[in-house]
Automatic annotation (TrEMBL):
This is Methyltransferase type 11 domain-containing protein. Residues 443-453 have a biased composition (Basic and acidic residues). Keywords: Methyltransferase, Multifunctional enzyme, Transferase. Gene3D superfamilies: Vaccinia Virus protein VP39 (3.40.50.150). GO terms for molecular function: S-adenosylmethionine-dependent methyltransferase activity. Belongs to the methyltransferase superfamily. It comes from Oryza punctata. Residues 76-177 form the Methyltransferase type domain. InterPro entries: Lys/N-term_MeTrsfase_sf, Methyltransf_11, SAM-dependent_MTases_sf. Residues 443-472 are annotated as: Disordered. PANTHER family: EEF1A LYSINE AND N-TERMINAL METHYLTRANSFERASE, SAM-DEPENDENT METHYLTRANSFERASE SUPERFAMILY PROTEIN. One of its GO terms (biological process) is methylation. The keyword Transmembrane helix does not apply.
Length: 721
């Protein structure tokens, strides 16, 4: 109880109690008050009589002077209140009073043994009661929960008590809580009785007593079986119809998806596992009960851990793929746990130890065997790995270049078997695979090999040579016609929005100014150069070491069509925006375009500080000042493309709202399997091809020198403004 009645001697009483959860303090309190004295913390009987008698009528087959046996009533934390004796005198004879103070219970027995012989008194801790399940029709709590819920004590005792109350309450019973209804108490009641209970609340008048200045409320939780089943069926239907609801572990324990002790074939629920104070980490998880009952289950319950780098794969990200995993795991119930950036630096043994007590609560009933829940894990999908270089930059931090061969874990990717990829990894962002390029093997003749040996660059080339099974040597080179990232494909496809302007430039032999902020491994600029030869590309990269790595390991090269400017991307755009119509603008752009020509600006940079909620781009690239500079840079005739990655819907909405303010037109391509969302913005409709998108897609495809599935990408295009 967090507050006290304004009664005579109240201050001295509180000094005696101190901690409302201490048995010793209560014994001392009742001993000092003496025998034969009642004490009401909240409302008086005259105010409670009408609502309580109305509540109790009809419970447990009658009572209160009626013909029935009357309800079995439990009064936990009864104290010295006259509540029980008044109810007894009103005809409710089956009342059990519980308090953990022996002093109090002894006094109450002396007072009521003869006058009220059927009333029972028990010395018992209300958070650990020795009653069988389903013993009572009604539980009347008068300040007991409030006493356990002192803000400093947290919710642990309150939750334990409410679990006990629900356990000893009969099906169809009622839990009535007389409370001051403080926010932390109501929050616990609402959460613990969230599923399968009807709730009502009413204010109790205090006209008959001037002792207390505090308003008392009666909160009643009714376990209406029929109504609860209807609610549960509604919940089940909502899930089976694909409603996307993420629950907490506590929601599941409270029955949000039915009885967890029972395997329900085909049950699949997303939820959050773990919370602050009870575990080291939180985890996104899916509970899956096998769709078919079979005798071949190896595990009654198992845990399958999916690492971050594989979470986007069809096998783990799609419902159909998850059912494949359940069948392969041969588990009656599988709890699929997805790791993300929060777990990047955690040891796997620490993760398993953290999960063990959490998943124990999700284990279905298995009376025949108390087996330990096994942990299974998906690898990172890499079958073979060779690290070529690890280097640390003062700007970007640690970087890794590696060659990998992926496992063939996805039926849809069978063609990827034994293909080798080169990856650039930025470790500053949870091991982010910043770029990925396809390596192709070209067998060389002995003569070509001999020429390589004579060449001054022979030693460099030999680093990319491997001996084949026949003894011949192969040279590994980057296939610049391949897009390793699906969001890169979306960037290319989104150029359909300005296909007519691009087609006109190509026909006229005019170069289209294209600025890319963020080089990475250079795979996107190299693809653009080969795929759309009429683009005049300038890449702005802050870190010179990134350019060196791109040239050394990813075949990146510059020429008249593709240039690199080392410097800050925001300053680069600001400078051009300020001098957009002058000679400085012409010098910086170095392309000779007139101001009315179409321009393209692509921002593809990751953030070194994910605390902003943005993984990509850096928060500075979505500030109002930069967006205004972009608008001036485009000069009413271009397309601004930004790769957006954020787990926060609020952050995403903030970025979108800022873009809507700065630009007249805004479109989105969201990648279903990834967090990436590619946004396309333009200050005017002068260059847009939105009236006939099919024709625009066809125009773009005709211009592309490399294959891109433009049609599939553009089917996901959404107009945001």
């Amino acid at each position: 109880m967090a507050t006290t009645p304004a009664a005579a001697g109240g201050a001295a009483i509180l000094d005696t109690l101190g901690d409302f959860t201490s048995r010793e303090n209560w014994d001392k309190f009742f001993a000092l008050r003496g025998t034969g004295d009642s004490f009401e913390w909240y409302a008086e009987w005259e105010d409670l009589r009408s609502p309580l008698l109305s509540l109790l009528q009809g419970c447990g087959g009658g009572g209160g002077g009626g013909g029935g046996k009357g309800p079995e009533i439990l009064v936990p934390g009864c104290g010295s209140s006259v509540l029980s004796e008044k109810l007894y005198d009103a005809g409710f004879r089956h009342i059990t009073n519980v308090d953990f103070s022996r002093v109090l219970v002894a006094d109450m027995l002396r007072r009521h043994a003869r006058a009220r012989p059927e009333m029972r008194w028990r010395v018992m801790d209300m958070t650990d009661m020795q009653f069988t399940d389903g013993s009572f029709d009604v539980i009347l709590d008068k300040g007991g929960l409030d006493a356990l819920m002192e803000p400093e004590a947290g919710t642990k005792l309150g939750m334990k008590y409410l679990n006990e109350a629900k356990r000893v309450l009969k099906s169809g019973g009622k839990f009535a809580c007389l409370t001051l209804a403080e926010s932390h108490v109501l929050a616990l009641l609402l959460s613990e009785f969230r599923f399968g209970w009807d709730m009502s609340i009413q204010a109790i008048g205090n006209e008959s007593s001037k002792k207390s200045a505090f308003q008392t409320f009666m909160v009643v939780m009714a376990n209406d079986v029929i109504h609860s089943l209807e609610k549960e069926n509604t919940i089940r239907e909502s899930y089976s119809s694909g409603v996307d609801v993420t629950l907490s572990l506590r929601d599941l324990q409270l029955g949000a998806v039915g009885d967890l002790k029972v395997i329900i074939p085909g049950r699949r629920r997303m939820f959050i596992l773990g919370d602050q104070g009870n575990s080291l980490y939180c985890y996104k998880a899916v509970l899956l009960d096998a769709r078919k009952r079979t005798e071949t289950f190896v595990y009654h319950c198992g845990v399958f851990i999916v690492p971050k780098v594989r979470a986007h794969e069809w096998l783990f990200a799609s419902e159909e793929g998850q059912w494949h995993v359940v069948e392969s795991a041969k588990a009656a119930r599988l709890i699929m746990v997805f790791l993300d950036s929060r777990h990047a630096n955690a040891d796997m043994d620490v993760i398993k130890n953290d999960l063990s007590p959490l998943v124990k609560d999700l284990e279905p009933g298995n009376p025949e065997e108390e087996a330990r829940i096994p942990f299974m894990m998906a690898g990172d999908g890499v079958k073979q790995r060779e690290i070529l270089q690890e280097v640390t930059s003062e700007i970007t931090g640690p970087m890794v270049v590696e060659d990998v061969v992926y496992e063939n874990s996805d039926e849809d990717q069978s063609s990827m078997t034994e293909k080798m990829f080169r990856r650039l990894i930025f470790k500053r962002n949870s091991g982010l695979v910043q770029s990925e390029a396809l390596l192709v093997k070209d067998s060389t003749s002995d003569k070509a090999d001999e020429n390589n040996k004579k060449s001054p660059s022979a030693s460099k080339k030999r680093r990319n040579q491997k001996k084949g099974s026949s003894g011949s040597k192969t040279v590994l080179r980057i296939d610049h016609s391949y897009l390793g990232s699906s969001y890169h494909s979306s960037i290319i496809s989104g150029l359909s929005l300005i296909a007519s302007a691009l087609d006109s430039a190509a026909v006229a032999g005019t170069k289209v100014s294209t600025t890319v902020i963020g080089l990475g491994a250079g795979t996107l600029p190299m693809f653009l150069r080969g795929c759309l030869p009429f683009l005049d590309i300038k890449v702005v990269e802050l870190d010179p070491l990134v350019e060196e790595v791109a040239k050394k390991y990813f075949g990146f090269s510059t020429d008249e069509q593709l240039q690199v400017h080392l410097g800050d991307g925001i300053k680069f755009i600001d400078d051009i925006a300020v001098a957009n119509n002058g000679a400085i603008s012409q010098q910086l752009m170095s392309n000779g375009n007139e101001n009315n020509a179409v321009k393209i600006l692509i921002v593809d940079v990751d953030s070194s500080d994910v605390r902003s909620g943005l993984s990509c781009p850096h928060a500075n690239f979505v500030e109002d000042s930069f967006l205004l500079a972009v608008k001036k840079f485009l000069d009413e005739g271009g397309l601004f493309i930004i790769n957006l990655v954020s787990r926060s819907s609020a952050v995403r909405e903030m970025v979108v709202s800022r873009l809507k303010v700065a630009f007249e037109h805004l479109y989105s391509l969201h990648l279903e399997e990834d967090l990436n969302e590619v946004l396309f913005a333009t200050p005017s409709e002068r260059c847009l091809d939105v009236n006939n998108m099919d024709e625009a897609v066809a125009k773009l495809k005709a211009m592309l020198k490399f294959p891109v599935d433009v049609e599939s990408d553009m089917k996901r295009l959404q107009k945001l403004q």
